[in-house]
Amino acid sequence: MSGVEEFRAEIRGWLRANLTGAFAGLRGRGGPGREHEVFAERLAWERHMAAAGWTCVGWPTEYGGRGATLEQQVAFHEEYALADAPARVGHIGEQLLGPTLIAFGTPQQRARFLPRIVAVDELWCQGYSEPDAGSDLANIRTRAEWDGSPGSGTGEPESGGGEPGAGAGQWVVTGQKIWTSLAHESDWCFVLARTEAGSARHRGLSYLLVPLDQPGVQIRPITQLTGTSEFNEVFFDGARTDAAHLVSAPGDGWRVAMATLGFERGVSTLGQQVGFRRELEALIGLARRNGAADDPLIRDRIAQAWIGLETIRFNALRMLDAVAAGAPGPEASIGKIFWATWHRQLGELAMDVLGAGGMLADEPYDLDDWQRLFLFSRADTLYAGSNEIQRNIIAERVLGLPKETRPPAPGS
């Protein structure tokens, strides 16, 4: 048996032995559009995983991971999905911030934050999007101003003031973030903020780690079409974070933020596709039971969905070379367009398979899984970078086509 197959058998056996008893009822719970489900129980499950060494498996061993190879990481995510294990609650820290700190953080930042991510003792959210800076992320207006006065830091006491990013002192953050997943459950937020007055677009941005449990932070859940609230508005009104919580250098935030987005397109997408396949197979079963599969147009769309899913998988496997090199490049946008469009179309197909009955919801607004899939998947082609922005990235950074003409920035 190869090392990968041994690893696959190990995680499969552990999941079989541990998704039992108090954890047995967590199978299939949580995930996009359903993050409200049994959150405390899923957190307990993930801490149980951490105690057994099954969080952050792809991280280097010196940072608390297993040092799993790329192939082993794929096996982990696939087996986790095949076991119908509950959706992870610490994935933003594990898959986004952790790799970012490993690549760009200081030794002190790694020592402070990484062990708590591995243990699932601190949960993270991502402070990127704003009302006027969604897919056009460079339009960020949230600002962070340097306060280097003596005694302003909250770490170890130091004498005197300091320069931004060093010694005593703090960044004072003011602005608004939106569509912040799980902010209401999080302890910290990594925030992209403008730290250079008068700067525009990609310049003058910095990447800050901001504690959420403090005065000056207000979190407001957003009620979605599904009736649930996993996205939030986050308001910063003079919120503070220490000098030591600046990742890389002042003004280097865009480079760090883009690397974080690259990690988001990593190996976990292979596990995501196991869930997609489960949805497609369940929909095929429904179409056979209710007679929708007798419609040749429905049958053709199901066939196209199967072909599309195979294409997504082959494209994801092709991208693994880029993942192995450190972080996916702009080519990762191809995968995002593929799976987001496919999943949205699957939701539309589900409504047509259901027929007129799919338009009805039980009181009080109790959606079934297919209705929730349809409504939530409308956002797939928007969040994590809209299809339009992904196409621009592919055109400009992969194909080398001329950049899209944009209006000049205000004041330029």
TrEMBL record:
Region Disordered, residue ranges: 144-168
GO terms of molecular function: flavin adenine dinucleotide binding; oxidoreductase activity, acting on the CH-CH group of donors
A Pfam entry, by short name: Acyl-CoA_dh_1
Protein known as: Acyl-CoA dehydrogenase
Segments forming domain Acyl-CoA oxidase/dehydrogenase middle: 125-237
Family stated for the protein in its record: Belongs to the acyl-CoA dehydrogenase family.
Biased composition (Gly residues): 150-168
Cofactor dependency: FAD
SUPFAM superfamilies: Acyl-CoA dehydrogenase C-terminal domain-like, Acyl-CoA dehydrogenase NM domain-like
